Amino acid sequence: MHCSRLAGKTLVSIGYKKKLLNKYNSERCEGATIYCSACPCLSCAKKIVQAGVMHVLYSEKYGMDELSQALFHEAGVSLRKVPIKSSYFYGLSFMGDHDDIANGEDSSATSRTGSVPASELLLNTSMIHDDVEQQLQDLDLSFTQVDC
Amino acid sequence: MGKEICGHVVVIAAMLIGLCGPAQAGKAAVAQWLCEQLGFEPMRLRASKTTSFNDESGNGNGDSDGDSSDIEVYTPNQVLDIAMPRWREGFVVYPIDSVRDVAVFRKRPFFLLVAIDAPLLVRFRRHEKKGSLSLEEFVLADDRVLYGSTNLRACMDVADVTIVNQLPSIGALHAQLAELNLTDAERLRPAWDLYFMLLASLAARRSNCMKRRVGAVLVKKNRVIATGYNGTPRNTRNCSDGGCKRCNVNTSAGHGFDLCLCLHAEENALLEAGR
Asked: Is the pTM above the cut of 0.80?
């Protein structure tokens, strides 16, 4: 769960918030659609409404969906779930559908669509432990790109 | 683009389906079904050295493929040469066992890779009905195919659809195939909504918030205006590097929100649009 999703407050200072809200008032968002990997929190929902976005689509549910839904409904903004999980391209997605897994739903045991290959495949066919260690070192599993 | 099969015209999809999978998983049975039910044309891919034992007859209770020496075999490029001018028709090419071959086919927008798999012992039992290998010999040959130079295992990893065929009868497999709707064109190309949702999931992968990966894509008239993911503001330390105290001390839900520095994906997308 995102750190501040339940807060209704996300930003540090009120001044900053006002500045941001001015930014949201962009013609570019008027009538636009936003695709969200999770159902927007209430704090984001009001900004989406204010920005003039008219359609909200999300893939996974989140903890305060009813609150957001009520706001969107009142503002005339459509809200619809487009679950990647039940699509043919689940294997291409980078998310897990937390809610569906939590509900005990799982893909069929006899078929699945869009497999998720591991980024790199380490086949441990060696009989010698040192070889495995060398393979792991070469892989550099803890590599993270240094940027912001 | 209809084709007359068993007296009635079947509308077939413009699709080249490739089948990969280990011995006795059911590749031939799936190919046969595609041809009989959906009017696909079968094309045998030239066998690589490692799969010489991979001579199966579908579900293990079907007939043999016939005398394999009579069957014409093709290279991937030959398959494409034949399929391209007849792109409105359906073709099924098998067995695919090399990632190099997969790469040749995958460039084309009408190609779908289907893996057919089954538990090892189930496949061995099917083999036993007509084959002569011992379990150890079967496993050895299987390992060579899956993990050898052609690396069937890697082919199966990148399949668009995986069918686990441990079904007791060929009829059950057929029912499963009918239900799968393999020739649905949306398997080849996601519709707009799914396309943008997948972009949002990629944006989420850039998240640096310790609590949850979230992504958002702002779209107008099917054009991307902006993308966003959640994390700390620019020029500050990433949440995942300890930049947001609130997220890094595992604060319980409902507490400490005032101290959270992370921007949400949706906010970031809206901000980006306004820049």
From this structure: no
| Catalytic residue status for B266 | yes
Mean pLDDT within A20-44: 83
Closest-CA distance, A137 to chain B, in angstroms, reads: 21
B20 touches chain A (CB under 8 A): no
Stated length of chain B: 275
User: Measuring CA to CA, how many Å separate B241 from each of A90, B200, B209, B231?
Assistant: 30, 23, 9, 11
Smallest Cβ–Cβ distance between A82 and the set B176, B197, B257 belongs to B197
Please identify among residues 122-151 of chain B the ones whose CB lies closer than 8 Å to any CB of chain A.
147
pLDDT tens digits, B184-206: 988 999 999 999 999 999 999 99
Q: How far apart are CA A100 and CA B124, in angstroms?
A: 35
Do B90 and B14 touch, CB atoms closer than 8 A? Answer: yes
The answer to whether the beta carbons of residues B33 and B173 sit under 8 Å apart is yes
CA distance B39 to B47: 24
Q: Which residues touch B160 (CB under 8 Å, ≥6 apart)?
A: A88, A91, A113, A114, A115, B112, B113, B114, B187
Other beta carbons within 10 angstroms of residue A131's beta carbon come to: 12
Q: From the centroid of its chain, how far is CA A50?
A: 22
B150 against A34, higher pLDDT: A34
Q: Where are the alpha helices (DSSP H) in B49-89?
A: 76-83
